[in-house]
Amino acid sequence: MTMRSRIRFSFKLAAWLALLILLATVIITWHAAGKLLHPDRRQLQGYQQDWIRHPAAHGMQVKAGRCAGDKVPCLFVAPDRNAGPQERGRALRKQLAKANSALRPYGETQGILVLLHGRSGRKEDLLPIAERFVAAGFKCVIPDLPAHGDNKLDNALFATAPFERDLAARVLADARAYFNERDSPAGVWGISMGGAFAIKAVSQSTDTWKAAVIVSSFDSLEGVVEDKLAFLPGSLSALLRISLGIMTDVRGDLILKEVHPDVWAKRVTTPVLVAHGDRDQVISLKRGRRLFDSLPGKNKSWLLVSGATHRNVLTTSAPLYSGMSKWFIAHVR
């Protein structure tokens, strides 16, 4: 083979490799965009059905309904005065009593909390969380976020679409009507993706929310994607990020660069508690800390959950529930 032939062959080989890399990038990011926009919907589990059928066994009353113009399935949760607090509720009330929190008699409430689940979750996942907050003296409403649970909307747009930006406030309005408490003070709690919804909510309506709690959430969706691709060479990582941004836009009108809770946070004046596990490998600790640092002023608190991952942050032995409950008790009144 002559020198000219070898050069021509090398150029052809490089062109084919570039084409294969581009094709692989398109396929990978097309699939990833689909998972991001509409993750697999988890089916209702047997233990969750039991919670719905026998809420008194958890010290609660639970009623299924619809919110936000009948578009969002919700659970309305209130304390069951006759049943009284059960195991989780009793444990939390004992912790709060030791901390000298202003606990009300069981059944009396001081406000309404909107609870927002994470990506790939559903409203029933948060019933154990609601049991604690009910025991602390709150009513709760739990919606299925778009593209999750029984919500018929197809795409999850991380609180960037007009309907999603106002979702928490609209759910709260329906909860106030359901509980017949039009002037009840309110707080919002969100985990992971739900934390982005919660930050968006309090950034838009400072008068609506008395407090917020954000668990294991992030400063920007672009940053989370960047962390996932950090093991790749810089040029390949950049190519995948650009391609993913194009695919999420094409497949569902999700603009990755618009999902920036750290930017939204700069407008927040509501008291916010941010909690994050120090072993979180899904959303790194630095993402949660950057979100916290973006919140202006001093009306905020950082809670590091030692030993917690993204999966078990709510089930470690750390006194997370008492910390979150004390925050709401102090501010939602």
Protein traits:
alpha/beta, single chain, Rossmann fold, 12 helices
Q: Can you walk through the features of this model?
A:
It is a single chain. The chain is of the alpha/beta class and 333 residues long. The chain folds into two domains: 1-37 and 227-258, no CATH class; 43-220 and 260-331, Rossmann fold. It contains twelve helices and eight strands. It has an eight-stranded mixed sheet with strand order 1-2-4-3-5-6-7-8, with helices on both faces. β1 (60-67) and β2 form a beta hairpin. The longest helix has 35 residues, at 3-37. The protein starts with a helix and ends with a helix. The mean pLDDT is 92.
Shape: elongated
Distance between the termini: 84 Å
Order of helices and strands: HHEEHEHEHHEHEHHHEHEH
How many helices does DSSP assign? 12
Q: How many structurally independent domains?
A: 2
**What's the overall average pLDDT, rounded?**
92
List the helices and strands and how they pair.
Elements: H1 3-37, H2 46-53, E1 60-67, E2 72-79, H3 87-98, E3 112-116, H4 127-136, E4 139-143, H5 162-165, H6 167-178, E5 186-191, H7 193-204, E6 211-215, H8 221-228, H9 234-252, H10 261-265, E7 272-277, H11 285-294, E8 300-305, H12 320-331
Parallel strand pairs: 3-4, 3-5, 5-6, 6-7, 7-8
Antiparallel strand pairs: 1-2, 2-4
